[in-house]
Amino acid sequence: MKNNRLMVPEHPEIPYLQGNGIGPEIWQAAQPVLDAAVRRAYQGRCEIEWLPQQTIMELKRHLVAIKGPMTTPVGTGHRSINVALRQTLDLYACWRPVRYFKGAPSPVKHPERVCMDVFRENTEDIYAGIEAAAQSSAAQSLKKWLQETSQLNRVRFPNTAAFGIKPISKEGSQRLVQSAVDYALKNHRHYLTLVHKGNIMKETEGGFKKWGYQLIDQKYAKRALTMPRLDKIKKEQGEAVAQQVLQQAQTQGMLVVNDIICDNFFQQALLFPEHFDVVATMNLNGDYLSDALAAQVGGLGIAPGSNINFQTGCAIFEATHGTAPQLTGKGLANPTSLILSGAMMMEYLGWRQAAELIRKAVAQAIAMQKATSDLVPAPAALSTSQYGQLLVELINS
Ligand code: NAD
Band of the pLDDT at 54, cuts 50, 70, 90? Predict the structure, then answer.
């Protein structure tokens, strides 16, 4: 990084982690597609030198990496390596674009109306992993504190309850919201929606909403109009003036920023997805809603993502999905999520042409109904590697 800009050599070394489960097979299908796009776009001038299995410190040194999924056991065993990577490298923004490709199967009537970018806070929330097991000494200490602050009566079964702690900070919320606003403004999106459960978690999720609006009103007042600001205008100058201000802001291409309670978001995103462009939310909400939105446009097989620290430039690109144990080793997994994550990485490196070649090949294959069995009925479906080869051919054609 120099002056906040990523300086990319023509032959960058990029670490990759295949992950486990379906990770190695989707990586084997994805890597030739990424290489083909770079070769075609830059005629040999640029090339990625892939570095296998780096340590976290080496990932930090190389700044940009790509990874496959990794298993996290439920209930017992080690904590999530995925979460550890995001926290150690402080990759605070998880950006997941949700796009429909014509021909992909969908449970909704108008999947083409879905065109959203989810910005999920990636380092805070219950993912901090601060928990006290039921009846442990930590749980006793928490109970003591609850007693001292007259809150123990809020715990329904205090003697057997396990506890979790949910840190949400002003800095953490604002840097995430800032990355969502910057993205929305740069890409001429119309709406930014802060998704929260601030009606119940007033200090944490309510804080996220409050600090998000504060940042936008302080830093982006000329380019974005927030609902609290519009409400103030309504109160002071009346409904008609407020309507005028809103219309003017929209005509001038200002970003309109509102918020919605998370449960309602799930409903509205199904019924009126066209009302949402960019969505900013906290870690757990973001986890849930990115899988649900992916389902609307064809499933986790085509859901790319990235984990980015926009201040240091450090970024790890990875699919939204996990290790899909029931698909492992069968040649059934769809490598598109990883491939499109690779396209996001190309764009991040400033290699837009290569990214566009990849997206065009994916769109062509899906439109021709030539894809893996999650997208195409079984007899016509391609295996993971056949589909990868097809994408290489489409890029080269
Ligand atoms: P999953 O994402 O692995 O699978 C959920 C569903 O999506 C399954 O029905 C699966 O068949 C389908 N699916 C996922 N990827 C697909 C693909 N490429 N092609 C076609 N279908 C695909 O979620 P899970 O089963 O709940 O989790 C399995 C493991 O993955 C767990 O250990 C979990 O902790 C881990 N996980 C890791 C990451 C990560 O590495 N970032 C993310 C999510 C889950």
Answer: low
CA distances from 110 to 27, 117, 159, 363 (A): 31, 18, 49, 17
- Please work out whether the CB of residue 318 comes within 6 Å of at least one atom of ligand 1: yes
Contact 349, 28 (CB under 8 A): no
Q: Is 224's C-beta closer than 6 angstroms to any atom of ligand 1?
A: no
**Cβ-based neighbours of 332, under 8 Å, separated by 6 or more:** 372, 373, 374, 383, 384
What is the pLDDT at residue 60? 85
**374 close to ligand 1 (CB < 6 Angstrom):** yes
Q: Is 334 touching ligand 1 by the criterion CB < 6 Å?
A: yes
Task: For residue 98, list its beta bridge partners.
Answer: 116
CA 97 to each of CA 118, 119, 207, 345, 371: distance values in angstroms, whole numbers, following the listed order? 6, 9, 25, 13, 20
Residue 55 has pLDDT above 80, yes or no: no
Q: Distance from CA of residue 37 to its chain's centroid? A: 24
Catalytic, 197? Answer yes
> Mutation test of ligand 1: which of 320, 323, 328, 384 has the most ligand atoms closer than 8 Å to its C-beta?
323
Question: Is 263 part of the annotated catalytic residue set?
Answer: yes
Residues present in the chain in total: 397
CA-closest residue to ligand 1 atom 40: 69
Pocket test for ligand 1, best of 300, 317, 332, 375 (most atoms within 8 A of CB): 300
With a 6 Å cutoff on the Cβ, whether 341 touches ligand 1 is no
Among residues 100, 127, 213, 387, which one is catalytic?
A: 127
Is residue 377 classed as helix, strand or coil in its secondary structure? coil
* 199-235 per-position pLDDT tens digit: 999 999 999 999 999 999 999 999 999 999 999 999 9
What the block records as the tokens of 173 is 């919320």
Q: Is the pTM of this model over 0.85?
A: yes
**Residue bearing the CA closest to ligand 1, atom 42:** 322
Those residues with Cβ within 8 angstroms of residue 157's Cβ, 6 or more apart along the chain or in another chain = none
Q: What is the per-residue pLDDT across 59-84, written as a single tens digit (0 to 9) for each?
A: 888 999 999 999 988 888 888 888 88
Specify whether 127 is catalytic: yes
Quick: pLDDT tens for 155-209: 999 999 999 999 999 999 999 999 999 999 999 999 999 999 999 999 999 999 9
